[in-house]
Design brief:
The complex is a heterodimer of chains A (392) and B (449).
Chain A (H helix, E strand, L loop, with lengths): L6 E6 L22 H13 L4 E4 L26 H8 L7 E7 L5 H14 L5 E5 L4 H5 L16 H23 L6 E4 L4 E3 L9 E2 L4 E2 L14 E5 L9 H6 L2 E4 L4 H13 L8 E10 L3 H12 L8 E5 L1 H12 L5 E6 L4 H16 L12 H4 L15
Parallel strand pairs in A: 1-2, 1-13, 2-3, 3-4, 4-9, 9-10, 10-11, 11-12, 11-13
Antiparallel strand pairs in A: 5-6, 7-8
Helix pairs in contact in A: 1-10, 2-3, 3-5, 9-10
Chain B lengths: L8 E5 L20 H13 L4 E4 L7 E2 L2 E2 L10 H9 L6 E7 L5 H14 L4 E6 L4 H4 L13 H17 L6 E4 L4 E3 L7 E4 L4 E4 L12 E5 L3 H10 L2 E4 L4 H15 L10 E6 L1 E3 L3 H15 L2 H12 L24 E2 L7 H15 L3 H8 L5 E3 L1 H13 L5 E4 L9 H13 L12 H5 L11
Parallel strand pairs in B: 1-2, 1-17, 2-5, 5-6, 6-11, 11-12, 12-13, 13-17, 14-16
Antiparallel strand pairs in B: 3-4, 3-15, 7-8, 9-10
Helix pairs in contact in B: 2-3, 3-5, 5-6, 6-7, 9-11, 12-13
The chains are: A alpha/beta (392), B alpha/beta (449).
Chain lengths: 392, 449
């Protein structure tokens, strides 16, 4: 049987995804707000030949409540701006993709688009974007422009959510047009005519939508990848499940808790109409990996005073067992995984050193980087700008 | 014993998207590749500069309703590229120009705080405001900010940013693994702000950064700009002029500080300055003329003329005489540039000079626009800079090289050592943060500033 290689990404956030991760003996919680903490993590991920790392972010303080601050002091609080953090990591790495989170709800689509384009320039073609909504009233109050109802998991306002999803799709559309708004050969440096650019190859994007309008062109030349990779986490809870990734993304992160669920979700994703190449379906898993994984998790649960809960399935076991699970769900149509390490660097190292070896024994993971850009690692070609006139 | 000589501060301006930047020179490299930014930043750090500076433009410039194609076009998002530079430099300050009109305090304050953390205390923000609807077409906010409101918005924006930066106590993070205490209780204040421009409430989500407050720079020479700088800024980025003009500006701005309870050393005055070097003064003068010809191509000469005359001048020969046509009175041909206040008066002045010196169009534009601030041998230029600083016409300069990315190499190799020999410029960084380099005191947490 030939195995198709899996894509592997790691989701980085603070000291790891367990609320008590920072209390693990191997954690260095005083270093969370230093560049070297993140540099060590991303170079480890690159050493493991992973496709990319994502970096979490939000426009509000972390909380155990759905909306609004808790007063807890026993968990990590505070985050760096993820796009800037990713950019600081770019010169320290050469191959791994860098996929920061940026929200579409209160930010300017123009700024987000040129930020991701700049990350792509700085990293020579390794940028992606984890598109996220800011649905909370607390976050809206940090901007003061919108009245948003308190987010209540038991009474989700589907209209409110649908508006935010539509706005996100519009923000991605703006970014994609801006990335294409400079054709690749727009810069001509033609001394005889004194022209630096051929302005016929710079394009207004003329986007108009209910929340914003953007004229263009971008101020930033076309990114090296042409189109950086757009990714979205979707739990399928919107009115049309998986509509945003179908409209806007290259990769969707989904959260099945079994192989059967994985198969059902993949089918649901595939059923949404879409132009162009199919969206890649990655499953999110929160993982503790190693011989004593269950014991480590149990000790952290005890420190946290509650058993870990997550939107994603939680795995605790050996690298071989995790490899079996990933290969099993692959049969259901999952093409890659975004693993959320329970504790960094412990579970990250188990992924980069042991899980990758186990997968490699099955022929399911690379033994060297096969491309210099993130699109290349994902097997995606470099698209021509939508504004380039077709060759007659 | 003589008093220690006043120290010079220097910053490196990445070549901009205007005709100061010469792209037709074979040594001119990419304006967007990270390698270019890294080259200039490393050169500035090798020269022990205070900071690296990026300008901003949020819409491509237009002339006659079309994108201006004669100058360098295209730039990165400033804070993103500075974050990358934080990984390849260790002491150099990193300053971004960021618009207060098209950003929101919560988001921008956290981006600046993030850069300050990533760089271990080297972040600076050059606060600018835009009032034009042209740029607004790229943003949610859109439209127009009344000119009179530009500084009120900037002032409120900076004040609110400082409140957000101050809202985490410096000792908020204890990270005591044994006791299970990550935070000290009540160490993150809830910020409530209701003002003319902003109405926000909530908790900031970035811990207090190494500098406490990133350095604030203000650019602009108007009366309101000076007052805003005196009240709020750590550095004022001004226009370069003669020694006398510099001294008058310096006295005026520094005098304003006392009214805001501040000391003269708390605001550094750093005009933008260009330069041309040669082995001898004569060679430098030749070199300066050569650079000016490259900066003003025949097509650029016509474009300048059109901006002042406010009409299409493309039919005229740039190497020929100034034609006998009057400027349009009210037409606004260009977008994305500062508009000329009184084009008729300016045109009359230009015509007088052209006639007096028998200049062609191109020669006239070369004569009338942006000559180099410092021209001479390394010794001459070092002497001129020192004189400006010692006689209180400036505290230092933001140097604008004309070539990307090597335009500062000669200055650092040949002028900086002479300034160091004079004892007016550091030979090593004595501190780690930009505030240290600029001799600014750390802000008091929670204190008004």
């Amino acid at each position: 049987m030939t195995t198709v290689p899996l894509h592997l990404a790691v989701a980085l956030d603070g000291a790891g995804w367990h609320p008590a991760a920072w209390r693990d003996p191997a954690a260095r919680p005083r270093e969370l707000f230093t560049a070297r903490h993140w540099a060590a993590l991303v170079t480890e991920a690159e050493r493991g030949l992973l496709d990319f790392v994502t970096i979490e972010d939000a426009l509000g303080l972390q909380s155990t409540l759905f909306d609004g601050p808790d007063e807890r002091v026993d968990q990590v609080r505070g985050r760096f701006d993820a796009v800037l953090l990713a950019s600081a990591l770019a010169p320290l790495t050469t191959r791994i993709g860098l996929v920061p989170t940026a929200t579409t709800t209160h930010t300017e689509p123009f700024h987000v688009a040129i930020g991701i384009a700049t990350l792509d320039h700085v990293s020579n073609g390794r940028a992606g974007w984890r598109v996220q909504l800011s649905p909370r009233r607390t976050e809206a109050a940090h901007f003061g422009h919108r009245d948003i109802p308190l987010l209540d998991p038991d009474r989700v306002d589907l209209d409110h959510l649908a508006n935010l999803f539509d706005e996100a799709a519009d923000a991605v559309e703006v970014a994609r047009r801006l990335w294409d708004s400079w054709e690749d050969d727009a810069e001509i440096r033609d001394v005889p005519t004194g022209r630096f650019v051929d302005r016929d190859r710079l394009h207004y994007i003329d986007f108009t939508g209910p929340r914003f309008s953007v004229k263009g062109p971008s101020i930033t030349p076309r990114p090296p990848q042409g189109q950086p990779i757009v990714t979205v986490l979707d739990h399928g809870g919107s009115r049309v499940p998986y509509e945003l990734p179908a409209r806007a993304a290259d990769i969707v992160y989904v959260t099945p808790h079994s192989r059967a669920q994985a198969a059902a979700i993949v089918e649901q994703v595939r059923s949404v109409p879409r132009d162009g190449q199919p969206v890649k379906v990655f499953a999110d898993l929160l993982v503790f990996v190693g011989d004593d994984a269950a014991g480590r998790k149990a000790r952290l649960d005890e420190l946290a005073g509650a058993e870990l809960t997550s939107d994603a399935a939680v795995f605790a076991g050996t690298a071989d067992e995790l490899a079996e699970l990933l290969l099993d769900w692959q049969q259901a149509g999952i093409e890659g995984y975004r693993l959320r390490p329970g504790v960094v660097p412990v579970d990250l190292k188990a992924i980069t050193r042991h899980l990758t070896s186990a997968l490699r024994r099955h022929g399911a993971f690379r033994s060297a980087y096969e491309a210099g850009t993130l699109r290349g690692l994902l097997g995606l070609g470099r698209p021509v700008s939508r504004y380039t006139a077709p060759v007659a | 014993m003589t008093a220690p000589r006043k120290q010079v501060h220097l910053a490196a301006h990445f070549p901009g998207v205007n005709n100061t930047t010469v792209w037709a020179d074979p040594r001119s490299e990419s304006q967007i590749d990270f390698a270019s930014f890294e080259h200039l930043a490393r050169t500035a750090e090798r020269g022990r500069f205070d900071f690296f500076f990026l300008a901003e433009g949020l819409r491509l410039r237009e002339l006659k309703g079309r994108i201006h194609d004669l100058d360098v076009v295209g730039r990165p998002e400033s804070l993103t590229v500075l974050s990358a530079l934080s990984a390849v430099t260790t002491r150099l300050g990193l300053a971004a120009t960021v618009n207060a009109t098209f950003n929101e305090p919560y988001e921008l304050a956290r981006r600046l705080a993030t850069l300050d953390h990533l760089s271990e205390g080297r972040a600076a923000w050059n606060v600018v405001t835009t009032s034009d609807a042209f740029t607004g077409e790229n943003f949610r906010r859109g439209g127009y900010l009344d000119r009179a409101d530009r500084y009120t918005r900037a002032e409120e924006f900076v004040r609110l940013s400082r409140t957000l930066w101050d809202s985490w106590q410096p000792s908020a993070i204890v990270a005591d693994q044994d006791r299970g205490a990550f935070l000290r209780p009540d160490s993150i204040a809830t910020v409530r702000h209701q003002g003319r421009h902003f109405d926000i409430e909530g908790r900031f989500n970035v811990p207090r950064s190494p500098q406490g407050h990133p350095v604030i720079i203000q650019a602009g020479d108007s009366d309101e700009g000076r007052e805003f700088a005196a009240a709020t800024a750590d550095v004022i980025f001004s226009r370069h002029g003669t020694l006398e003009e510099g001294r008058a500006f310096y006295i005026d701005v520094k005098r304003r500080l006392a009214r805001h309870g501040r000391e003269p050393h708390q605001l550094k005055i750093m005009p933008a300055a260009t330069f041309a070097l040669g082995d001898t003064d004569a060679e430098a003068t030749e070199r300066a003329a050569e650079i000016r010809r490259l900066q003003v191509s025949p097509q650029t000469a016509i474009a300048f003329l059109e901006q002042i005359w406010g009409r299409d001048m493309s039919a005229y020969d740039p190497e020929g005489p100034l034609p006998d046509v009057e400027p349009a009175a009210d037409q606004s041909l260009s977008q994305g540039r500062v508009q000329l206040a009184d084009r008729v008066a300016v045109a009359a002045k230009w015509r007088a000079v052209a006639e007096e010196k028998s200049l062609t169009i191109r020669e006239l534009v070369i004569e009338m626009t942006g000559r180099q601030s410092f021209v001479g041998s390394p010794a001459t230029v070092a002497g001129q800079i020192d004189e400006f600083v010692q006689t209180d016409a400036a505290d230092g300069f933001v140097l604008v090289p004309h070539l990307t990315p090597g335009g500062l190499d000669d200055f650092v190799d040949r002028v900086v050592p002479l300034l160091q020999e004079r004892g007016v410029f550091r030979t090593e960084y004595s501190g780690t943060t930009l505030r240290d380099h600029l001799g600014l005191t750390a802000p008091v947490p929670g204190g008004a500033s």
